[in-house]
Amino acid sequence: MKKPEITETKTTTNSKDEHWKTQAPYIAPGKSHPHGDVFHKKIRGACQCGQVTYWLSKDEPLASKFCHCRDCQKMHGAPFQWAAIFHKEDLAFDNGVDGLAFYSSGKNLQGHDLPCK
Question: Which residue range or ranges hold the CENP-V/GFA domain (predicted)?
Answer without folding.
Answer: 43-117
